[in-house]
Amino acid sequence: SVNYSFNVIDEREETIRQTVAYHRELEAIFGADKVEPAIFFIGLQPHTHLEEYAFKNDILKPGYDPMSLMPWTAKKLLWNPEPLGSFFGEVCLRAWKQNPNDFGREVMAILEKRLGQTDLEEALSAPMKPQVQVKAKVGVG
Questions:
Q1: What is the Cα–Cα distance from 38 to 112, expressed in whole angstroms?
Q2: Residue 22, class by beta-carbon neighbours within 10 Å (0-12 exposed, 13-18 middle, 19+ buried)?
Q3: CA dihedral 4, 42, 94, 124 (to 10 degrees)
Q4: How far is CA 10 from CA 6, 25, 96, 110, 119, in A?
Q5: Residue that wins the pLDDT comparison between 127 and 21
Q6: Which ranges constitute the DSSP H helices of 1-84?
Q7: Which of 14, 22, 23, 48 is the one with CA 20 to 30 A from 126?
């Protein structure tokens, strides 16, 4: 299976289209029956950068109990924030209703139908930030 974690920090419709294109290429290479998408959401863990992000963005409050099973806490520990949280929630519910025995493939089909896919070259390229070069002064003297 191929693991896909959607709605990570900075996820956009463009990155979803790239993921769909990448997945379709894997299916073309190995066969759709051999490439099973496993869809999961990140579980927020204590003492991580994601937890720090959640504090800074008022998703969680310091002092929360990470072992709490209370729904208002557990919901926040399953990372699926807006603006795409509702979209992914609806996609996953629809996939579960339409085809619970092939959930991952159904999610990918719904995403492709709604958002399309980008070309493969774009899907395989990572955005690179320009690096600033610092020139050292070499002095005599």
A1: 16
A2: middle
A3: -30
A4: 10, 23, 26, 21, 20
A5: 21
A6: 13-30, 49-56, 71-77
A7: 48
25's CB contacts (< 8 A; 6+ apart) are 120, 123
Name residue, tokens 């709490």: 68
Q: Where are the alpha helices (DSSP H) in the chain?
A: 13-30, 49-56, 71-77, 85-98, 103-115, 120-123
Strand partners, 2: 37
- 97: how many CB neighbours lie within 10 A of its CB? 9
Do residues 16 and 116 lie in contact, with contact meaning Cβ atoms separated by under 8 Å? Answer: no
The structure tokens 């807006």 sit at: 82
Whether residue 29 is predicted with pLDDT greater than 80 in this model: the reply is yes
In this prediction the pTM is: 0.76
